[in-house]
Amino acid sequence: MQRVLVTGGAGFVGANAVRALLETGSEVAVLDDLSDGDEAYLRPVRGEVELHRASIEDAEAVRRALRGADAVLHLAARSGVPPSIADPRRDFEVNVSGTFNVLDAARAEGAGRIVFASSGAVLGGCEPPLHEDLAPKPLSPYGASKLYGEASLAAFGSSYGMVATSLRFANVYGPYCMHKPSVVAVLLRQALAHEPLTVDGRGEQTRDFIHVSDVARAILAALGATNGGTYHLGTGVETSVIELAEAVAEVGGVPFEIDWRPGRPGDPPRNFPDVSRARAELGWAPRVGLREGLADTRSWLVEWAAAGVPGR
Questions:
Q1: Is the pLDDT reported for residue 308 higher than 80?
Q2: pLDDT at residue 266 above 80?
Q3: Which of 142, 173, 176, 231 is catalytic?
Q4: What span, in angstroms and rounded, lies between the C-alpha atoms of 100 and 57?
Q5: pLDDT attached to residue 305
Q6: Distance CA 30, CA 9 (A)
Q7: What number of CA atoms fall less than 13 Å from residue 92's CA on the CB side?
Q8: Alpha-carbon Rg for the chain in angstroms
Q9: pLDDT surpasses 60 at 111
Q10: 41 catalytic per annotation
Q11: CB within 8 Å of 207: residues ≥ 6 apart
Q12: For tag attachment on the chain, is the N or C end more exposed, with fewer CB atoms within 10 Å?
């Protein structure tokens, strides 16, 4: 058993990771200001989780939440490329200054392990498949902020003897996504509402879509690993956004009707990873295929709409 602090634990990945940690017998605390996540996501497990309602921008609150923790799962962030382009200063305040607060508190409180949620956006300008040996080339303030997190994590790990791991998430989807503006969540919500599916640009841009349960398993593997490092997480399958929209329409049983939107600045035309290092060093591999994962996510959204707080 270990005590793990999850920053952003009431968010999308956080709600799934908290449940996965509880299933291992870990003691879990959550730090979340609820500006993006939803406390209702934690309600079914609230009696098992210590919740600190505070921002990672509050250094003292972060340190209080970290007292007694053996490990930190740092998920809290302003996520996504468009918000960072619209407000780069806010992206810096949360993703750079906030991440420093988490790392410095972990150092001060003696937490021995840190797992950081990074992104393939640190390699946004690179030719895929993306892998860990490529030189960073962010195309957005968001990608740059995640690069800062990776570099600082490595520096703190080597300076203070922490096992420090950065996980570069591909496009994550799955349950507890009701609030998310990510492409899968938006398309599934539109399908459930029988609305046209919005696609930016020509829909030819490609991504790798990974189910959140696979991400949660990778997080557990990283928290249990002997050594740290940087790892790409994904399925290794390149899927265009228009192919994704077709799959959403099929799973949702709705007509394939598209609402075309302009392309977005900062979006790479192709983005998918090579996950062989995570397979070899973490003993991890993705399990959930796209259509299976879309069906699972759609079921969760229906359950949420009907009950308000799904219990899974």
A1: no
A2: no
A3: 142
A4: 9
A5: 85
A6: 5
A7: 5
A8: 18
A9: yes
A10: no
A11: 170, 171, 183, 238, 239, 241, 244, 271, 272
A12: N
Write down all domains in the chain, each with its CATH number in brackets.
3-171+209-234+274-287 (3.40.50.720)
Q: What is the mean pLDDT of the chain?
A: 95
Query: Residues 172-184: what's their mean pLDDT?
Result: 93
3-state secondary structure of 112: coil
Question: In the prediction, which pLDDT does 253 show?
Answer: 95
Confidence of residue 179 (pLDDT cuts 50, 70, 90): confident
Q: Residue 295: helix, strand or coil by DSSP?
A: helix
Side chain identity at residue 176, one-letter code: Y
Amino acid at 32: D
Query: Nearest Cα to 150, choosing from 77, 207, 81?
Result: 77
Calculate ∠ Cα 221-229-58, nearest 5°: 85
pLDDT digits (tens, 9 = 90+) for 86-106: 999 999 999 999 999 999 999
Instruction: Using alpha carbons, select from 13, 279, 287, 17 the residue that is nearest to residue 131.
Output: 279
Question: Can you tell me the mean pLDDT for 70-99?
Answer: 96
Query: What is the token pair recorded at 287?
Result: 């399990």
Total-model pTM? 0.95
Strand pairing category for 206-207 and 239-240: antiparallel
Rounded Cα gap, residues 210 and 222, in angstroms: 17
Beta strands in 223-264 (DSSP E): 229-233, 239-240, 258-261
Q: Measured between alpha carbons, how far is 254 from 149 in angstroms, rounded to an integer?
A: 41
Mean pLDDT of 210-233: 97
CA–CA gap between residue 206 and residue 202 (Å, rounded) = 11
The three-class DSSP label of residue 167 is strand
Say yes or no to pLDDT of 312 above 60: no
Report the distance separating Cα 129 and Cα 271, nearest Å: 7
| Structure tokens given for 92 | 């810096």
